């Protein structure tokens, strides 16, 4: 091992150790004691509940598990490949700012740099392997072989994801459009197959939760189909090794094949990376020969739109009170950048709209409206925040500029959060309007639930941003902290939904016991809307407090 490789390995472990020490220090911080205590409680509940559920579950069929493992990797790869085809910016094999500081001037070959990137990714792969081992322990005979197989499969999956990202980077505009079209067709076909399986295995007339419960069996059916299994040939050795029943010489060959796929994938990554760099250089030379000295980008379209949007902003400012004009300026800044994401945002909410309206197809007239309301609430809390990162979560690298603006904390919060909240409310009201035109629940129901769901949107984005400001992270961050964060946020949102439902039911009982049937509905509606908006405003104030306490010296995470 030469000196350069030793320094890269040292840098990888040193960075990992620093991140672990920093996480422990932040957990012990008095400024984050409440968030840290809640995180520990949720982690404890999650571990105890997970161990109990695993101990009560019977073992499954090893053959089905083998097909599910290999096919599941391909399904995730199809999802990522489709998403990657619609994104021109790929950062997997690019230098971060920290790596530019430490490695930018070093004589590092792309092969060494690719290996360095894959080794850094293996740390998060180890954590994912541990979680999967806990879930699949009752289904296998050899826990060690399960760990080796799952780790090799995840590492191969992540390396293949990086390979595909480099392929997308090296494509010309014409080829990129063709690949985008092909991957959209493949992704749509996979989604149609999944919906068809859900429709087939669920009896007609079942309640909507039954359809949701059948998503995982439907995923298993799609993953074990012959087409997906043929596409998962590279993951077959690792899947066979993970589900080994008896140790034979064939098991040793499977282990060798599973482990060998990782260096082969790294070799392919290096070759594809070189091809991508050569292709980009050749395309640039061709443009120069043709006299095309600049490439039209979304920034050009943005500059063309500046005069029009500037006039619109000045017109809006005439009707906005003086104390909120700073928020309007930040909102205008967010609206300028949304032009680049308009197609992605529209597609991101098109599928949830169909999912929320799917109870109309179940044939159960009595409870369709309430299930549609529940679907909108779930999409608002679970799907809208990841799809609309047009707030503090996107501006971490520009936080120094934001902190330097002479803007009050509450104005900064309103300016950053208003646009994603408005988009989410538009999704809610469009879905509600379509359902109301079909079910005719009445204006009282429409306005009441519309008001409460709008408050839920405000509460959700305020909660997401307050947690982010307390524990900030970069967009592509991975590791133990991110896995814990994702689980805590998921459990926390489920707890919020359960608490809200319980509070609304309790308020119904109080209204019926204190007032007559004619008055109770109006009082219930007014009280429910008032209570939900009070919680939403309180969440906004908490977010403003977190932004005011944000410390540039200690809160900015390293890359």
Automatic annotation (TrEMBL):
Keywords: Membrane, Transmembrane, Transmembrane helix. It comes from the Bacteria. The keyword Cytoplasm does not apply. The chain crosses the membrane at residues 35-55, 67-86, 118-136, 142-165, 177-201, 251-270, 341-362, 368-388, 417-440, 446-470, 490-510, 522-542. This is Uncharacterized protein. It comes from Stieleria bergensis.
């Amino acid at each position: 091992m030469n000196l350069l490789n030793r320094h890269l390995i040292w840098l990888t472990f040193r960075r990992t150790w620093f991140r672990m020490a920093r996480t422990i220090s932040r957990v012990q911080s008095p400024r984050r004691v409440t968030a840290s205590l809640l995180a520990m409680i949720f982690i404890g509940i999650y571990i105890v509940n997970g161990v109990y559920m695993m101990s009560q579950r019977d073992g499954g069929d090893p053959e089905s598990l083998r097909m599910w493992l290999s096919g599941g990797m391909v399904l995730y790869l199809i999802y990522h490949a489709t998403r990657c085809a619609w994104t021109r910016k790929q950062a997997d094999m690019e230098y971060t700012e920290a790596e530019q500081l430490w490695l930018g001037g070093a004589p590092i070959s792309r092969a060494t740099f690719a290996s360095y990137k894959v080794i850094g990714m293996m740390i998060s792969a180890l954590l994912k392997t541990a979680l999967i081992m806990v879930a699949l322990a009752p289904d296998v005979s050899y826990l060690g072989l399960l760990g080796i197989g799952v780790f090799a499969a995840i590492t191969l999956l992540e390396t293949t994801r990086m390979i595909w990202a480099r392929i997308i980077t090296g494509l010309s505009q014409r080829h990129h459009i063709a690949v985008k079209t092909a991957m959209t067709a493949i992704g749509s076909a996979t989604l149609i197959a999944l919906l068809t399986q859900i429709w087939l295995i669920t009896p007609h007339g079942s309640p909507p939760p039954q359809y949701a419960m059948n998503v995982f069996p439907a995923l298993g059916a799609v993953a074990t189909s012959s087409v997906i299994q043929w596409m998962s040939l590279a993951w077959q050795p690792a899947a066979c090794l993970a589900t080994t029943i008896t140790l034979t010489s064939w098991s040793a060959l499977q282990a060798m094949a599973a482990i060998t796929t990782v260096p082969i994938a790294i070799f392919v990554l290096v070759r594809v990376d070189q091809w991508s760099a050569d292709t980009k250089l050749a395309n640039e030379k061709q443009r120069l020969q043709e006299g095309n000295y600049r490439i039209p980008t979304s920034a050009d379209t943005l500059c063309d739109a500046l005069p029009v949007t500037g006039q619109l902003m000045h017109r809006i400012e005439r009707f906005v009170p003086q104390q909120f004009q700073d928020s309007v300026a930040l909102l205008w800044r967010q609206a300028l950048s949304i032009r680049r994401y308009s197609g992605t945002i529209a597609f991101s909410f098109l599928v949830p709209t169909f999912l929320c309206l799917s109870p109309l197809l179940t044939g159960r007239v009595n409870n369709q409206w309430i299930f549609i309301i529940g679907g909108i609430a779930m999409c608002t809390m679970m799907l809208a925040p990841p799809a609309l990162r047009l707030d503090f979560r996107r501006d971490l690298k520009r936080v120094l500029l934001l902190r330097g603006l002479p803007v009050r904390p509450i104005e900064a919060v309103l300016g950053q959060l208003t646009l994603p909240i408005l988009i989410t409310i538009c999704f809610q009201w469009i879905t509600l309007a379509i359902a109301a035109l079909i079910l005719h629940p009445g204006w009282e129901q429409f306005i009441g639930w519309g008001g409460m769901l709008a408050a839920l949107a405000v509460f959700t984005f305020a909660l997401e941003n307050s947690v982010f400001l307390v524990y900030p992270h970069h967009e592509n961050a991975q590791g133990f902290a991110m896995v814990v964060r994702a689980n805590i946020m998921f459990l926390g949102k489920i707890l919020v939904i359960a608490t809200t439902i319980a509070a609304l039911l309790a308020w119904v009982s109080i209204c019926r016991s204190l007032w007559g049937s004619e008055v109770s509905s109006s009082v219930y509606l007014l009280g429910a809307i008032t209570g939900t908006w009070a919680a939403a405003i309180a969440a906004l104030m908490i977010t403003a407090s977190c932004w005011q306490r944000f410390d540039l010296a200690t809160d900015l995470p390293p890359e």
